[in-house]
Amino acid sequence: MKIITPPPQDFGMYILRPETRWIEREAGDSLMSIYESGYLPYSGATGVQNVFYSARSARVVLREFVPTSENRRVAKKFDGMFEKSRVEAKIFKPDEAFWDLCLTYFRSKHGESAMPRERLKTILENGLVSTIVTYKKGSKIVAYVLEVTDDSMGHYWYSFYDLALAKQSLGLWLMLDCIRDAKRRSLTHYYLGTVYGAKALYKTNFKPLEWWNGNSWSSNITLLKESGRNDIA
């Protein structure tokens, strides 16, 4: 891992701090070691590859994962409703239905500039995404999840889904379903991305959860919630 200066930021969605550290992945660096050190992949600028940033990220300890009462409540809504398939990213062929669902989702949730087609295309082609998880109901695709995996870890990087189901907690169920699947595949940790702001605190519904405090992995969820609620951005 090589320490680098901050790259440009062409797109929104990133909450960065003055103390944020930046690294470039070098030959021989495993993704698992990078994630273990508190870094997540950066996709906030065009033409940037193999760049990672330190962040307040969260991960589930899969060996000890047991669904909470909230997990079980959401599971009852959606378990058995969809047909799921997992396709290697290197053979996945996005069609116009894929682009339309994904870009509409991000535009509606995060604004016009957060995920233009060029950015999503870069994410799909940068070599980090290992698996595209697709959820269908009948002939209609309702969700996609982009996963990163390496050795015994997985990362729920991006999800896109039919916003008509958003108020029914489909987003939470998708994350739960991928966590359960990761445990079945005997992974040790499943990374959920960053926890900045009150809107990200839904990730604390999964237990046991650890989060990166800037120096180490912490299991103090009370402090994580307090930090999230106190975020300005």
Alpha carbon gyration radius:
17 Å
User: Total number of β-strand segments?
Assistant: 12
CATH architecture of the domain at 61-194: 3-Layer(aba) Sandwich
Helix and strand sequence = EEHEEEHEHHEEEHEEEH
CATH superfamily (homologous) name of the domain at 61-194: Gcn5-related N-acetyltransferase (GNAT)
CATH topology assignment of the domain at 61-194 = Aminopeptidase
Distance between the termini: 29 Å
* Widest beta sheet: strand line-up: 6-7-8-9-10-5-11-12
Helical element count? 6
Report low-confidence residues grouped into runs of 5 or more.
Answer: none
Query: Structural class of the helix and strand makeup?
Result: alpha+beta
For the sheet with most strands, the description reads: 8 strands, mixed
Mean pLDDT: 93
CATH domain class name of the domain at 61-194:
Alpha Beta
The residue fraction in helices comes out at 25-40%
Overall outline: globular
| Percentage of residues in strands | 25-35%
Structural summary, described in words:
With 233 residues, the chain is of the alpha+beta class. The chain is built from 6 helices and 12 strands. The chain has helices at residues 31-36, 69-78, 96-110, 117-125, 170-184, 221-230; strands at 2-3, 22-24, 39-41, 51-54, 57-61, 83-88, 131-137, 140-150, 153-161, 189-194, 209-212, 217-218. Helix content is 28%, strand content 27%. The protein is globular, with a radius of gyration of 17 Å. The protein has a domain at 61-194: Gcn5-related N-acetyltransferase (GNAT) (Aminopeptidase, 3-Layer(aba) Sandwich), CATH 3.40.630.30. The chain has an 8-stranded mixed β-sheet.
